[in-house]
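The data are quoted verbatim here:
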Amino acid sequence: MKISKIEFIKLFGVFDHSINLNEEGGITIIIGENGLGKTVILEAINALFNRQYNFFHKITFEKLIITFDTKDTWSFRKGKQQTNASQLFITKGANGKNESKEYLIKDGLPPNISKHDLFKRRMMQREYLRRRNIQFAENIYDSRLIDGSIINEMDMIERSIWNEHLINEYDSHNDKNVQNPKWFEEALDAINIRLIETQRIIGRKDLNSDVILNPVEYYSKELKEMIVQAVKESSNVASSLDSTYPNRLISELKRGADDSFEELNDALAKLNDRRKLLSSVGLIIDSEDNDLLQIEKNQEDLITILKIYIDDSHKKLAPFEEISKKIKLFKEIINTRFKHKKLEVTQGEGITFKSTVITNRDNKSVNIPSTGLSSGEQNELILFYKLIFNSQPNDMILIDEPELSLHISWQNKFIEDIKDIISINDLSVIIATHSPDIISHNWELMIELQGVE
């Protein structure tokens, strides 16, 4: 079940917008003048499918209509009376016809937590921020925060963490004991939508401590943990295969070899290529000097042994398959953009950077700390990291004004990069932009919002 069309009737009390999503290729580009509601449309879809219904309290509209590829439609309106003006109602339809029954969307707050309580907690935030500023300053790696801007920077970082906490507490009940229609709740669970905002960089809190990490360091650690998980899975497969190897070998030797020399040599070559790919993205030990040799016809006794070895090796490497494709694409995208530095990925360090122009006394490339990246480079890296590593098949990703963090030369390549990411992650993507450089030659993907003449 995927969204195929989004309509707003009288958004802000004025604008009618109809957006047919491009199902072929999975990319839709929304353009339009400031004030027409591009960002609000993305935020509304994100809020709806992530059960953040309080978002709709602050916007005015007559109807929001969502059409799915199943031809089902959801039509939303806000309450018309003063007593229910902040409430959201839904009517379900199919094939252009709406049911007569209308449902109130309940936000799922438990009796002991009211919106008033949450508002009070937000007011407490200022005191919380004041007390925490000094402690968090000690954990920030950017020396610029030593100057007078530290309070604003700390507020921004802590506000993000606090808001995440509030949202988690508010939303943790929304899918538990709420008496919303079953078809509505099941659809929300089935459709994963994420909004990626690219306007600013903030630190991320280490889940295992109170340390605020530089965002690149945070995602480096996250990627390293993904690699560690793949290594564990591979190790478990290896242990299972190794324990049964003697018996499997004896059984195969009794049965006799069915493969020809040519088939076996071809299988060896494919395994060799797979090992080199994993080595090139930092997932296994460099195999440059460990090419698998081809066997000759006078080595028939090796056919059975090597056949088992090849099959087992592919099974051991299988846990690396998905992450290796993602790392390869990630490196290609970043390394075609960053100047004078090269991104590398290793099991031990995660994401690292080396200079391509500066060497040390041993004539080796010097390391560049993540804090040595410009804000534009950090935004670029974080954006593509999220798209590649934090997305799952069938996710819908909403990207608001990516040009704010991209150099013009990078903007020209943006859509092609998104297409490559879709090819491995099977996403659908909606992009709101002002930039013709983002659109490039992809005008067929564009939908223009119209104002009132």
Observations:
- The chain has a mean pLDDT of 78.
